[in-house]
Amino acid sequence: MKNNRQLFYPLCLVVFLCASVIGHGQTVLSIDGGYLVQGSNTKITLNNTQFINNGTYQSGDGGEVYITGDGTDEQSAIGGDSVTTFYKLEILKSNNGVQLQQNINIDAELVVEEGNLDLNGHTITLDSDAYIENESEEGHIVGPNGGTVQMTVDLNAPNYSPGELGVRISSSQNLGSTLIQRTHVPISLNDTESIARIYKIFPTNNSDLDATIKLEYFEAELNGHNESDLGVWREDSGFWYNATSTAEPNINQFTIENVDFLSEEWTLAPRAPAVDMRVLLAGPYDDSSAEMADDLRTSDLVPTTEPYTALGYDYPASGGGEQIDPTVLAKTGSDAIVDWVFVELRDAADISNVIAARAGLLQKDGDVVDLDGRSNLSFPEIATTATPFISIRHRNHIGIIAASTVDFSSGTPMLDFAANPALAEGGSAAMLDFGNGSYGLISGDFDGDGQVQNTDSNALNSNLGASGYLPGDSNLDGQVQNTDLQIKLTPNLGRGAQFSY
Fold first, then answer.
1. Is the pLDDT of residue 490 over 80?
2. ∠ Cα 440 445 449 (to 5°)
3. Is 216 helix (H, G, I), strand (E, B) or coil?
4. Residues 6+ apart with CB under 8 A from 75
C-alpha cells in the first residue's frame, strides 16, 4: 500500500533538516536554511506531516513525494519561504487533505488520489510536459480562497487536454504558446453565480481556429446548481454571455463547437434567457441570393464596438459598449456579419418600458447572434421566468416588436420574422414583402425616429457622396449616394413603426 512506504533519502545531502510535532500529532519536515537533495527515482512518504521549505529542496528525475494520512483532524501543508519544485507529488491524505502555504512547481506529475489539495490563494505551475492525474470526486484541486493551477504549452493542431487541467482543445490550427489557468472561486454573474471552476485561455494565435472546446467539472463544484440548468458562459472584452453548447452530464462535460477564437474566461452557470431570432434588412437585401450583402464587412467598415450608445439608444441595465474580437468579422458565407442590431426586452405590462437591451450581430442569412458571431443572443440580467415582448431595431431601418410575449422558462424562443411576418405587431404591414416568401425591416429611417419621412432625405443629403459607416447608407454598401434615396427611401415614405419607441 502507498501509505506504508517509508521515509528515506538514498543519495541525499541533508543540511539543517529537522522534524517536530504540532497539534494532534502532526509532524513537520522542515528545511531550515539548508538543503534537501533527493536522489533520482527515490520516494519520500510524509504521513500526517507538514512539508516546510525555508531552504532548498532539489528533486532528482523520478523523485516522488507522497503526503499521506488518515488519522488526524488537521490539514497537512506545504509551506515555507522558498518556492518548492516537485518532480512528482502525490496526495493520499483522506482526512482534511493538504493545504498550500506557498507556490509550488510540478516538473512531471501531480497525483490527487485521495483528499483535496487546497490552493489557499497560491499557484501551482505545471511544466509544459507535466500533468494532473487521478482527480475525482474523492480528491481534487480546490481553491475557495483563491489560487490558480496553470501551465504554458505549445498547442499546434491540438486535440488533447493540456496538463489534464480539464479543458480539451481540438483545432486544426496552430495556437502557438498558450497559457491555460484554472481557478475555483465562483464568479458573480448578475443574479447568479458560476460553478466553482473557471478556465482562462490565452493563445498566441487566436483567430480562425474552428475549434471544439470541452469543459469538465466535478459535481462537488456545482455550487448548489442543478446540472440540467447549466450552460457555458464565456467572457470577451469584459462581457459575459452564453455560448451555444451541448451538455453531457453523464461524463460531467460540456462541448462547444465551431469556436473561432478562445475567450479570456470560460465557466458554467445557470443559462441566461436567450432568443433564437432571424430578421432581414430591406436595404442590403439581394433578391438573387435571398440574403443580405455584407459590403460593410468586406470593406472593413463594421465597427468592433456597438454603434448604438453613440447614437443615443437607451440601455436600461448592463448593456452598452459591447465589443467583438476582430476575428468575428473574418467569417464568410451565410454566417458573415452584415451589421450590428439593437434588441430590446419590453415589459409585458407596459410595452414602453424597456427592461433589458443588448447589441447583437446580424448574419447574412438573417440570424441574430451574440458577440462570438455564432451563439444565440442572451440576456444575462433577466430572470428565466420573464415573459417580455421582444423588439429589434437597426440604425437606419424601422424596428419591429413581437406581437406576443415570449416565455423564457420554456427554453429558448424562436422568432423567424423573416419567414413569418405574423410574429410582428402589425404583421406584413410592418415589414417589406420581398415577394418570395421573405420579409424585411423597412429601410430609410436615417435619423432613427421610427418614421420614414422627408426629414430622412435631409439626413441622407447631408452625407451624399460620402463613404464609410454612415446613417444615410441605406443599402449598407459603404457609400451614401442617390440610389439610397431613390430606391430605398422614396418607396417607403410615410411608413413608421407599429409601436412607440
1. no
2. 120
3. strand
4. 96, 97, 98, 99, 118
